[in-house]
Specification:
Elements lengths: L2 H27 L10 H9 L29 H5 L17 H4 L3 H33 L5 E6 H8 L9 E3 L4 E5 L18 E5 L11 E2 L4 E3 L6 E2 L5 E3 L8 E6 L4 E10 L22
The structure holds FE2/S2 (inorganic) cluster (FES).
Length: 288
């Protein structure tokens, strides 16, 4: 550090010290006595705690109580005139005991109550959040078992007269119901992904989560976000997706309804030997 810089720093330190000193002197001259700033409630609380407070000094600036003077009688009453003595009545400062009810809410009570209200609010919000998180499982929405209706009706809707497929979308389950192939690939072996000849595919792309629409011309699912493509039962075909479309476990009721268990997601790796051919026509998003 050069000499000029040291000099500047020294001047700045001196100026700061001078400012602090001036502030301290001004504060002392302001004559504010801390004892005067105490409220009646604080004094009462201190008294109840056994703290002795010194009396508040009377400032010379404040009006002094007028000394009481005994009335002087008539001039022709010598005894009274001779005895006329000014008696200064001592003013006595008395501290009066005040009950907690009279003194209102103390500072400690205020902070205790504020703490209780804050804790209660936080607990309420936490409980509400947890209830909202668990609500789908309680109410039967997404995250619970969804009844998609008779599996025969679903198959009739999904398979067109010309043999092409149009998946049935079940909004409550956020899933496409598609006809399953006669023979499933090995990656599905032993997993509850097919029931009554149908599968339930989650609409969410396994790359970054876009909703994947159906392409009727190619007979597959094609993601418009980054170009991932899947065949008619959601097996990986192309793009950045790391695996097949996820799907939900399914089962049939005794009455033949399809139950989509949206709380049970089944992940499978890319298929080495896809169960369904793809594409069967032009792609909806282009590309190879
Ligand atoms: S989100 Fe579907 S390919 Fe990226």
């Amino acid at each position: 550090m050069s000499g000029d810089q040291l000099l500047l720093v020294g001047v700045a330190v001196l100026a700061l010290a001078a400012a602090v000193g001036a502030f301290a002197i001004a504060a002392r001259r302001s004559g504010v006595d801390w004892r005067k700033s105490l409220s009646d409630e604080t004094r009462a609380a201190d008294r109840s705690a056994g703290v002795e407070l010194p009396p508040v000094p009377v400032s010379s600036d404040e009006p002094q109580p007028e000394p009481s003077v005994l009335p002087i009688g008539a001039a022709d009453e010598p005894v009274q005139a001779a005895a006329a003595v000014a008696v200064q009545v001592e003013t006595e400062q008395r501290l009066v005991e005040v009950s907690p009810e009279e003194s209102g809410v103390t500072r400690r009570q205020f902070f205790n109550r504020a703490l209780g209200v804050t804790f209660g609010t936080f607990s309420g919000l936490l409980g509400t959040s947890m209830l909202a998180f668990a609500w789908p499982r309680i109410s039967g929405g997404f995250g619970s078992d969804v009844n998609a209706g008779p599996v025969g009706d679903l198959l009739a809707q999904a398979i067109n007269a010309d043999g092409s497929v149009t998946p049935v979308f079940v909004p409550e389950a956020r899933a496409y119901v598609v006809p399953g192939p006669p023979q499933l690939s090995d990656e599905f072996a032993g997993k509850p992904v097919e029931a009554g000849g149908v599968m339930a595919l989650w609409q969410k792309c396994v790359h970054l989560g876009c909703r994947v629409p159906w392409c009727s011309t190619s007979q597959g699912f094609e993601c418009p976000c980054h170009g991932s493509k899947y065949n008619g039962i959601g097996e990986y075909n192309a793009g950045p997706a790391p695996r097949n479309l996820d799907r939900f476990a399914v089962e049939l009721t005794d009455g033949g309804d399809l139950i989509i268990k949206t709380g049970t997601v089944v992940e499978t790796p890319r298929a080495f030997q896809p169960s369904v051919s793809y594409p069967q026509g032009p792609s909806c998003i282009g590309g190879g």
